[in-house]
Amino acid sequence: MDKKQPKREETKVIHAGPDPDPLYGGVSTPIYQSSTFSFRSGDQGAARFAGEDSGFIYTRLGNPTTRALEQCVAELEGGYDALGTSSGMAAISTALLGCLDRGDHVVGTDAVYGPTRGFAEKHLTRFGIESSWVPTERIESIREAIRPNTRMLFIETPANPTIKLTDLEACGRIAKECGALLVVDNTFSSPVLQKPLRFGADVVLHSMTKYLNGHSDVVAGILIARDQEIHARLQAMLQNLGGTMDPHQAWLVLRGVRSLALRVEKAQENAGRLAAWLVEHPKIAWVSYPGMPSHPQHELMKKQMAGPGAMISFGVRGGYEAAKRTIDEVRLAVLAVSLGGLETLIEHPASMTHTCLPRAEREEAGITDDLVRLSVGCEGFEDLRDDLEQALAKVPEVSGSPTAGGR
Ligand SMILES: *Cc1c(COP(=O)(O)O)cnc(C)c1O
To answer: Quick one: 359 exposed, middle or buried, by C-beta within 10 A (0-12, 13-18, 19+)?
Structure first.
């Protein structure tokens, strides 16, 4: 078997990318902590600037450690190439500014990562780029929002924090029909669970701060392009905006990626068991987890994902106060935003990550006051269950219907 063509995801994450150290054979990629790279001669320098010599010039334009990570993640997503960025938001702003022109229009998922929508509505508008944010889990809502100047569909699936799914294959078809690019934020799934390029995406992006790194110690992002032309457009924008990745950051993510499949497998198993337990709990009003057959898009999950992932959102009976009490009372789960780390994190989107949305829009997107978001980690299931049990025991009882449902 060719070493670089393994079939299993758990093998790929360990071996993807170039050989780590062609110089000494180090098993781990060296950190090239250098801002600039010397030329042997003036001719070589000129050749590098002309793109005729493939060596490195300056770390904002490219760095060997960052390059190793870009090749690794491009392989995992099945893309033409990738660009490491200083954060997930740097990847998002680069994609939007790099692929859109004045007068263009974007249709996006209403429950996207808050600052994505904030950037479009507060800043892109200043450059004459308009956007519509709609419930893309209903494909008709996308068709209804399309205008003659729509040039991009920006999809996040599963969406944050409602855990609703959007049909990627249908989006790929619509994008093709109207000559728009399909951009997918794949942060919640990671390439181990979902590969949007297979369904017609043109650009896939990640906040690698989350699952790809997985250790809650790095902020980083990446853009993966379907083809050379899109890659070149994104690269030109990134090099000018300057949101480039740092080599030490790249090295930490390279280390994190090697355990991605193991982490996702364990966290997903915990999430499945916790969702099943939560849905039976008398203090819980509803649970959204695409691994449950009651999730309205359980079948879509099976079609486009290799597994439901480890993000759960649930409603606590009693609304805002009950949700706040729950997050205050947990002892093991860490009260923090972000996700995708080894430790379980808990947060309250309506008062934290999604406050940039006006209340009406937030509620319309399903981000209700009772919603608690859980990024399930890799602890022992029983410890996580016991922690939530003791926290929910402190939430005052509310009279009403006793059975929770899916959502
Ligand atoms: C965190 C996150 C981002 C932003 O990434 P940063 O690394 O914090 O800049 C974008 N999209 C999703 C889905 C996220 O969860």
So the answer is: exposed
